[in-house]
Amino acid sequence: MTDISHPAAAAPQRIADLQSGYMELARKKRLYGGLTLVVFVLLLVSGFMVADSRNAGGFWDGLANVGDYPAAVISEAWEKRAELPANLVKFFPALVETLNIAAVSTLVGAMIGLVLSFLSTRGLARWPRLVPVFRRIMDIMRAVPEIVIALVLIFMLGGGPVPAMIAIAFHTAGALGKLFSEVAENADLKPVDGLSSVGANWSQRMILGVVPQVAPNFLSYSLLRFEINIRASAILGFVGAGGLGYELRNAMSWGPGQFDAAAAIFILLFAAIVLFDQISSRYRNRLTEGGHA
Is the pLDDT of residue 1 over 60? Predict the structure, then answer.
């Protein structure tokens, strides 16, 4: 009879037990994963049914007409293609206004986010006990959509680019502050300790000891956010915040007869987004990788 108490004899039994335990865990994981997928599909289907029942006209009834509006815009724009250059010139100042809103809001939001990131980074914070407070502040700034802030500000300040700039900058500060904080957590603390030993204050330690280490990533995230803010500023124009989105809303609301103007605005917006996407991608690659796009 084999003595299973001997280490050599007990080893196969332990391996079998480990294999059995692993297979049991794998079965449970598959079961839980399958149940989660089923629940997700049920929620998705039920949510779609509720949305479809409350939609004016019904989703399935209108699905066949989804291409009617783009076809009308394209056909009218093609009929009036001779007026396209004039329309591009006409709406170019609105594009400049949209880009200015995005640029100023990105700059202001990045500056505020930089300060919040250092105040909320463990090991770097000026007041360590307040780190959770500053993190919750950034959570709130990210949680509130730009369009909600813009609508409130338009009600108080009136229409124009200022409400859009404030709304986008507010959201940008929360988003970039979170990203900057994650980057700053990986910074080497030796320069900070060295500056502290010679009497540098907190601001000097951050500017001289941390910023040079994280500047490429900070600039990369800021350029990425600039791309996002161009789209956001155009969307906010639909609620009266000025820029290209405001002109697009007016052109679309008039319907036939103004579709050539809507097509010109679409072309300007698309070209601007593609252009700045390529430029920012090129410089982000240079900053983070030191290479060429």
Answer: no
* Chain CA centroid to CA 198, Å: 40
CB 143 within 8 A of CB 216: no
Task: Of 71-75, 178-182, 223-227, give the lowest mean pLDDT range.
Answer: 71-75
CA distance 121 to 189: 12
Q: Are 219 and 189 in contact (CB under 8 A)?
A: no
Mean pLDDT calculated for residue range 131-145: 90
Q: Are 154 and 240 in contact (CB under 8 A)?
A: yes
3-state helix, strand, coil in the chain (%, to 5): 85, 0, 15
Q: Looking at residue 130, what DSSP letter applies?
A: G
Q: Encode 234-267: b = buried (16+ Cβ within 10 Å), e = exposed.
A: bbbbbbbbbbbbbbbbebbeeeeeebbbbbbbbe
Residue whose tokens read 């609105």: 94
List of residues 6+ apart from 20 with CB closer than 8 A: none
In angstroms, the CA 40 to CA 103 distance is 39
Q: pLDDT band at 7, cuts 50/70/90?
A: low
Q: Are 168 and 229 in contact (CB under 8 A)?
A: yes
Contact 220, 288 (CB under 8 A): yes
Q: How confident is the model at residue 8 (pLDDT cuts 50, 70, 90)?
A: low
What pLDDT, on the 0 to 100 scale, is given for residue 3?
A: 52
Question: What are the pLDDT digits (tens) for 21-46?
Answer: 778 888 888 888 888 999 999 998 88
Residues 6+ apart with CB under 8 A from 172: 105, 106, 108, 109, 110, 113, 225, 229
